């Protein structure tokens, strides 16, 4: 069991460390990051209950399952917790902070989800789990956090649009990810790997842009 937990959690910790250390100017308090990560771990349980209820009671289609029961539901609950546990906190004081906290929560969620999966299907699945769903959760978190970071320092209608984007864009990408897996079947890896390459390009671009926005933000407030 220890090997399963290690194999399940290690990719998430590695990705979170990478994102945390990409903060080039002022890293966030580690206690806050760990707290948000733990919230992500705990979020797995209500999500499992809700998803089981929707799928068993409503007999949803693959499209609805991908985009609503999984994509929108999971990303909304992540967004809700990040908003109230980090976004409203005084430590959220620079544009890059959104990426740190949203990815921390997403990777906490991915960690426990991965433990359950590997416990059921075996440690041989660890490589593909790290490459696909764990990385996917991290990148959905990066995109959510990028727009949260922008929204934090905007105002009026622009702030509302950015906060809406911080929810809807990761939900849409998460839904597309799930729908590709549902539809691809035998050619799953050939279908999903190009999508993951796009996600990595987009996520790393958002990391770069967030750091650039931080420089601009700091120069205006010195």
From TrEMBL:
Its EC number is 3.4.-.-. The keyword Disulfide bond does not apply. It is a multi-pass membrane protein. It is found in: Cell membrane. Keywords: Cell membrane, Hydrolase, Membrane, Protease, Transmembrane, Transmembrane helix. GO terms for molecular function: peptidase activity. InterPro entries: Peptidase_PrsW_arch/bac, PrsW. GO terms for biological process: proteolysis. Its main location: membrane. The chain crosses the membrane at residues 6-21, 33-54, 66-86, 98-118, 130-149, 161-182, 188-204. Belongs to the protease PrsW family. Involved in the degradation of specific anti-sigma factors. This is Protease PrsW. It comes from Fictibacillus iocasae. The gene is prsW.
